[in-house]
Amino acid sequence: MDNSKTTFETIRTTRRILHQIPELGYDLPKTHAYLKEQLESYGYEPTTVAQHGLVAVKKGRGDYGIAFRADMDALPIKEDTNLNFRSKHTGNMHACGHDGHMAMLLGLAERLSSNDTLPFDVMFVFEPAEETYGGAKDIIATGLFKQHNIQAIFALHLDPELEEGKLGIADGIMTAQDGDFDMTITGINAHGTQPHQGSDAVLAAANLIQQYHTIISRSVDPIKSGSINIGTVIAGEGRNILANQVSLTGSIRAFDMTTFELLKTRMRQIDQGIEAAFNIRINNRITTLHPPVYNDHTLFGTFCATFGNQEVTILKPMMLAEDFSYYQQVMPGLFIMLGAKNVPEGFIHPLHSSKFNFDEAVLLKGIETFERLIDMMAGIRV
Length: 382
Fold this sequence. Notes:
Number of strands: 16
CATH class of the largest domain: Alpha Beta
Mean pLDDT: 96
CATH topology of the largest domain: Aminopeptidase
Strand order of the largest sheet: 1-2-4-3-5-16-6-15
Strand content: 25-35%
Number of domains: 2
Helix content: 25-40%
Shape: elongated
CATH architecture of the largest domain: 3-Layer(aba) Sandwich
Largest sheet: 8 strands, mixed
Radius of gyration: 24 Å
Distance between the termini: 39 Å
Low-confidence stretches: none
């Protein structure tokens, strides 16, 4: 039988099973059970980490190892595709390609399961809560990377903006430092026809939103980049009542901590000005989240030399956020985009879209990329 066909059939089946059982955050019992069963069937003894994450290791001949990561969690999105393997968990969807990421890593684990000539250990990391809490930190805290002397880590991420099969990568900074903010603006109720007797939280919110959106254009060096987005606004009790409370949530991002801290400072200053101008109170909780993904320069150069100009597209830094950055704080690593854009087939919808999908054949390219990375690392010692 044609082994490549068998591998494709297996990886396609894996992806479709996982696509139908999307789960959120750390709470991934079905996903965990399926992956654990598959890994055990290949002869591995996987370790459960970070509640429902998994780590398995293929032993090699050396005294060190490298790791590959796949994220496991889905998104709270209602699927809007015509697939015959749609999500069975209404309101949840693998809209960021994590089903494909897991299928690729599981496919690599299967291929390596009978390989007794590996020069070093290969660790397979299945990480929960990438979309939310940063499951990477919990996996690092287990000490497994130190235990297996892991010297480098790699991850592939499907990218519907990059031509199918291309490998996209940046030298150094690739994604942004991100943060969230949760804000409550508190005013005083009054009748809508007697506004002088109250303090209008909605009017204050409207002015605050406008001023926040001047920060990037007027406070940030034009040669640098940042982003402030307000995603939700909840307010009001009645059409003829001055609202006494508005709740807002949003996100902030930048490629360096100096700019990130500047955004936070300017937001605080605007908060104080709005409080004084509108006689309201603001409680703004700003949470600093994942640091920027920073690809190791030496590994980047070796990667480009190994794969060549025909396969590699050099990317500009993206305002996306990724907790793969935590791994890169403790070891060198590369975060690589795997192109999934196919206009004739209609695979054009962005990440986090309810219509996101891809040609599963590209997952074979991902497995082959992992294997070539192993060969690449066999020639160097980080």
